[in-house]
């Protein structure tokens, strides 16, 4: 483990505004008061520690033990992820809705992209200098509340708008490290929603992407990510977004584009119809703490999960 459960305790703050944040957190009986948000993150880490295959099969009728065994045997015989952990096996089957052949296809892309993209998927310790530097440039926040459908929300935004300090490979490394940690904790989550804040994004950030790496990253997002991506929201969009989409369109399948949602700064009411305000940070008119505080909670969770995240 990267840390103990006590490592994610949150200091109590006597602040009326903080009380509003705490009331917004659905603790499901796991905690109240100033520790409510911390409890939500501790619950995720505890779910990873206490995860069992029997429990996953009991709670997910789409997946059968024979499929898990078959996928494990195939991985070993084909020497693709021969030492794959059971939670990840289940995640592949879950994202494929129990279709064994589809799960194998996802595994192939997962292994291929990750093994051929070391700048994103190698040396991924949460404590590494590169990951910490990326987190100084951007926010990569897991939110404590799920949507009414049970979807987990992950927010990515610029923390430092200076394009000269933005490194796309490092940002992608921190992004997928965060997503891997949540998948490890919740391999059979009903779905995920990603929120990308376009505020302060400039064309200079886009030029830093290059061509080769985005092609790999988007292939991984569409074909190799072992989770059910339900929606991707782009916030604070401007006319620049049209240019960004023209750059990205060659890498993105129509199936992925179909779940994109675009919101200008004046169009937040439509966002609230899909992600209620009690699931959003203060930055976007929500009732949760601002991104800076949520990043602190996320960081403690990532440190707790560090030794369980697939490498």
UniProtKB/TrEMBL annotation:
Biased composition (Acidic residues): 9-25
CRAL-TRIO domain residues: 127-292
Source superkingdom: Eukaryota
Disordered: annotated segments: 1-30
Gene Ontology CC, one term: membrane
Example GO molecular function: phosphatidylinositol bisphosphate binding
Official protein name in the record: Alpha-tocopherol transfer protein-like isoform X3
């Amino acid at each position: 483990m990267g840390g103990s459960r006590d490592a994610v305790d949150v200091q109590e703050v006597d602040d009326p505004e903080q009380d509003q944040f705490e009331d917004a957190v659905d603790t499901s009986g796991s905690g109240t008061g100033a520790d409510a948000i911390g409890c939500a993150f501790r619950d995720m880490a505890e779910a990873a520690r206490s995860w069992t295959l029997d429990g996953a099969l009991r709670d997910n009728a789409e997946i059968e033990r024979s499929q898990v065994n078959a996928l494990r045997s195939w991985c070993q015989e084909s020497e693709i992820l021969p030492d794959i952990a059971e939670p990840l096996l289940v995640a592949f089957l879950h994202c494929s809705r129990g279709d064994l052949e589809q799960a194998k296809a996802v595994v192939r892309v997962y292994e291929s992209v990750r093994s051929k993209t070391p700048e994103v998927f190698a040396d991924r310790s949460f404590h590494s200098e590169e990951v910490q530097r990326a987190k100084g440039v951007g926010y990569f926040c897991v939110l404590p509340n799920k949507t009414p459908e049970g979807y987990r929300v992950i927010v990515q935004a610029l923390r430092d708008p200076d394009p000269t300090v933005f490194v796309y490979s490092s940002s992608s490394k921190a992004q997928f490290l965060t997503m891997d940690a949540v998948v490890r904790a919740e391999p059979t989550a009903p779905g995920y929603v990603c929120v990308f804040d376009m505020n302060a994004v400039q064309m200079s950030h886009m030029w830093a992407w290059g061509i080769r790496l985005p092609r790999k990253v988007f292939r991984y997002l569409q074909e190799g990510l072992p989770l059910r991506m339900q929606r991707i929201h782009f916030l604070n969009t401007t006319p620049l977004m049209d240019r960004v989409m023209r750059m990205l369109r060659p890498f993105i399948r129509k199936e992925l584009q179909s779940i994109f949602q675009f919101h200008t700064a004046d169009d937040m009411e439509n966002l609230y119809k899909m992600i209620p305000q009690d699931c959003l940070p203060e930055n976007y008119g929500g009732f949760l703490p601002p991104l800076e505080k949520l990043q602190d909670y996320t960081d403690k969770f990532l440190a707790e999960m560090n030794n369980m995240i697939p490498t």
